Amino acid sequence: xxxxxxxxxxxxxxxxxxxxxxxxxxxxxxxxxxxxxxxxxxxxxxxxxxxxxxxxxxxxxxxxxxxxxxxxx
Length: 73
Prior knowledge:
single chain, about 70 residues, 3 helices
């Protein structure tokens, strides 16, 4: 079951994923997403499997950003 803290954590992750901060490059966004996932896990908001899932999402987004940049997108 989701509690408010977990919903807020996933919302913060999603917000950063879809709208990185101004002047934040793909590497910085990826590192911040990983930091968030680690922080949520350390605080007991998410479990190990949820942390792994967030890291997978961040990695796919980073891969796509780097791949797109390589094609001049």
